[in-house]
Amino acid sequence: MLVRRSRNLKTQEHVLSPNGHADVSLRIAETFSSLQGEGLLTGVPSFFIRTSGCNLRCWFCDTPYASWRPEGERSTITELIERAVQARMPDADGGPSSAARIGHVVLTGGEPLIMKGMTELATGLRAGGLHVTIETAGTVDVEVPCDLLSLSPKLRASTPGRGAGPALADDSRWAELHEQRRMPIATMRRLIDRAPTTQVKFVVDSPAEYDEILTVVGDLGVAAADVWIMPQGITVDQLDAAAVWLRPWAAAAGFQYCDRMQIRWYGNRRGT
User: Fold this and answer.
1) What are the EC numbers (predicted)?
2) 37 known ligand binder
């Protein structure tokens, strides 16, 4: 067992934290310690806080338990900060190791920026000396302090079609909402302007998306070196097949190629 998960505790919507302030609770799908598998900080031991709930419905979403079928219980900001501060990488048996505490926290989802209390959570984590990465689709303009903004704009091909993604009765409604929400360039630019460091990650399903990526990069005004191109895939075979055509294009465009190392290390499973 490579990854240790923390049990989410039920709480009321608001309680008082030890400092006497309202302590908002957030619905959390999971928390776990693992190696960051994507982007600039690949290989860095990190504590992941995955919020449950999303305002988009990508057909290829690899965390449907935080989007299509959100699950999880509520945890207060204080509880989440305590878990993060105490987090260690798991040992070979899945228990906490004696290694130094983890210095990096990843706020992910779902879509963390739709969660009330995210600003307070990120502020508290950074006050505890932790490096904070926020993984977001960039559809919500919320001022949340972070050390790294990991922005993942959703391309046209992400919109769910009939029969794509987990089967739901409201697929057609979600397709319309997803398309309306997925690419607010002005909102993304404001998020980028506020962040000290940004990486922009695109999940690519086919070469047909190349022109759209170039257009979005130009609209966002980000440097090519800050753009990461990642294949859509949940198996090593799928990643390897996509790399054949995607890696050369990324290099020619001056972009970074972003593998999904967590799949190579652990397989496509929760808590990684």
Assistant:
1) 4.3.99.3
2) yes
The answer to whether 125 is annotated as binding is no
Residue 202 assigned ligand-binding role: no
Is residue 108 part of an annotated ligand binding site?
yes
Containing structural domain, residue 46: 5-266
Torsion of CA 138, 83, 26, 260, to 10 degrees: 30
In whole angstroms, give the CA distance from residue 113 to residue 125: 16
Q: Whole-model pTM?
A: 0.87
**110 is an annotated ligand-binding site residue:** yes
Determine if residue 184 is labeled as part of a ligand binding site: no
Q: Is 181 annotated as a binding residue?
A: no
Q: How far is the first Cα of the chain from the last one, in angstroms, to the nearest whole number?
A: 11
157 near 175, Cβ under 8 Å? no
- Annotation-wise, does 272 bind a ligand? no
pLDDT of residue 185: 98
The total of structural domains in the chain comes to: 1
The CATH number of the domain holding residue 162 is: 3.20.20.70
Does 94 appear as a known binding residue? no
pLDDT value at residue 170: 55
